[in-house]
């Protein structure tokens, strides 16, 4: 029996030194990282995967040795000396910050503080003798999803050799200046949402379903509500307004309540709000749920059969969408072709693996009619999020502000809301600030992935290798809720023929609902899958004709004035495709002459939403009284450098020192119009900032005045719209050729040459970094990455970062980037965008190179279990 008169026992503590200062922390933290971040408020070590120790973001030094702090129980740290980046000597900090900035060694920056601590340990040990290969091996404990490691290693080498830099922002379009805020990012000083703390803040954790398709018969929250530190347990019954949210269709439940039915592994059944994150997470395990389990629908093709069970609660069909178009006589084109190919390609589901798991902080204020909710989010569409949160809370939009906090990577995976609504609901109902940060496992379960697509291709060409006809049938597994799955399959359909002219074409693509993980936006957005197939078809035809991969592409590449697949008459911008192809020719010939196994890929990717959307971007230029100049825009900075673009455009147009400029994402002035997606941020932001700058110049740049600029793209038409036989479905495209060289002895990719037409590179250093990162992601897509779901349960089977198959630093081949600039008509400065095209040609180029190596055609991704595998029979 408990003695209630006895004073409560003082919580046990653990003592050690942090950055030279003795500290004492609660002993119940699950690991050192939690003690550093949650109790000591030391936030340079980031939490990408705790407690699994697989991303390296939390690396610190303990007694001079680099270790991942999420794997250190406090009992092991007692009495030791811990050093974080905050405690590193100021001169050394500056050397790292300058080198990473000057070399372009970071994008979102989330991984970099951990990498810096690892690099410091190696440099402390080896000094200028540190070898690049050696360092790459030590980065095996780290993941970077943005950079491809090339410029990360450049920066570390520079520090090791004592190279000094004077990193400067550029004041011109085309200047290779450093990234905006690069130094702060490198040192972990620029906070992400999970680094934010406000007084009185509570923590929320989520209870997710145990079954992907099950009726919810009961939810018992008693035990969870009684757990230590718990303030509330909320269920769907607590939602005051709409329970369904979604970017395009409102079909994604914020929570499933009693009487409802689950539809995928990421469905949320309860929100637990507690004093600490650990208390909330522990209590989340105490929610008891009564399920009526139903067999899940996990095969997208079978889901289309007559009589197949309906996968998703509240829907009446498993067909999410169809996209189709046709022109010319495809049957005749195939019948009269000299050579034909019929092939089925299957691509895999892929996880974004951005290093920063989703985190949201919601802060209520005011009372009565004056109540307001500020939501801090790293999402890609804060305007959509605000509208859905307001609908869910049953309040007008202007009672909610969603403020964008630059995130630690997204790649499309932060377009849908994940935990924004849950944090918002908890904060609103409890009238307390609430932060909800997903664990890596929850992140893997909840957000949308890259679609696996089955692509059946029939293609024909004449004796010279000129395409005569193409028929495509595509079925994409879109998972449970719509997200933007219909748009991904629409984009796959539109890009089905690649950057080629095909006289007759017939394309049909279906997005299918299943109980597998939701699929939605991911860098490339359907274009990757389709062009893996199309490029594979071209290589097979080239082999039949007896010409090279380069030659068949040259004979079919689209030219200005020609009809592209969906019937669009291509403008002068499309000359970029041939320019990339011509640029690679001497390198291709030389590699073949040297006896290398060489593969080529040629691709295109739209920039902008197109398809009849009216796209609007606004920006504000404001000269402040204190001499600084604000540039405000509405696009998400997620590592891609949109802030730097805005800054360089403003500096050039206004003729001012870029170091006077503050770039601000403004969510109070209605500057944003939709998601930062479709490779359009650079183009749309640049156009709006240029316009705002010219408005300022015309009016004399008066202090404390908002000069507003706008860029509008409103001349596209919808794919397959019978009203437009030749629809301009997209206003701009990026183009790229990549050449992959495989070593004949080892079968290993030894070099990738990436030649990209970006229209105009606002900042070539950042552009190159984007492409290197894309190639790294593309090689993983080609060779090693997968995110399968169990066909019996619909649950993902790879539930750790390590199991995703992301290529580590030591296995990244040499990547040579070459930029081509064929300007895009009607686009500011001729910009085409680079965000997504980067990995479109990679997988097909790898497939072609591997065919050169062993004579095997490959049609299924990923193509091999390991990038380092040398045996073709593996
Ligand atoms: S958070 Fe520690 S290794 Fe990922
Ligand atoms: S810069 Fe490395 S994960 Fe973004």
Task: Describe the protein.
With about 850 residues, the protein is an alpha+beta fold. It has 21 helices and 29 strands. The chain has a seven-stranded mixed beta sheet with strand order 8-11-6-18-15-16-17, with helices on both faces. A five-stranded mixed beta sheet has the order 2-1-5-3-4, sandwiched between helices. A five-stranded mixed beta sheet has the order 13-21-20-19-14. A hairpin with a 6-residue loop joins strand 9 (about 245) and strand 10 (about 250-255). The longest helix has 20 residues, at about 765-785. It is globular, with a radius of gyration of 27 Å. The N and C termini lie far apart (about 65 Å).
Task: Name its key features.
single chain, 874 residues, alpha+beta, seven-stranded mixed sheet, 21 helices, 29 strands, globular, disordered C terminus, binds FE2/S2 (inorganic) cluster
Q: What's the arrangement of secondary structure elements?
A:
Blueprint: E1 13-18, E2 21-26, H1 32-39, E3 59-62, E4 65-68, H2 74-77, E5 81-83, H3 90-103, H4 112-126, H5 132-138, H6 150-160, H7 182-186, E6 202-208, E7 214-220, H8 222-225, E8 230-234, E9 244-245, E10 252-253, E11 268-274, H9 277-284, E12 288-293, E13 319-327, H10 330-335, E14 339-346, E15 359-365, E16 372-377, H11 382-393, E17 400-404, H12 420-430, E18 434-437, H13 440-446, E19 453-461, E20 467-479, H14 485-494, E21 504-513, H15 527-545, H16 549-556, H17 575-593, E22 597-607, E23 615-623, E24 629-633, H18 642-654, E25 661-665, H19 681-698, E26 707-713, E27 732-742, E28 749-757, H20 764-783, E29 814-820, H21 842-854
Parallel strand pairs: 1-5, 6-18, 16-17, 20-21, 24-25, 28-29
Antiparallel strand pairs: 1-2, 3-4, 3-5, 6-11, 7-12, 8-11, 9-10, 13-21, 14-19, 15-16, 15-18, 19-20, 22-27, 23-24, 23-26, 27-28
Helix pairs in contact: 3-6, 4-6, 11-12, 14-15, 15-16, 15-21, 18-19, 20-21
Bound molecules: FE2/S2 (inorganic) cluster (2 copies).
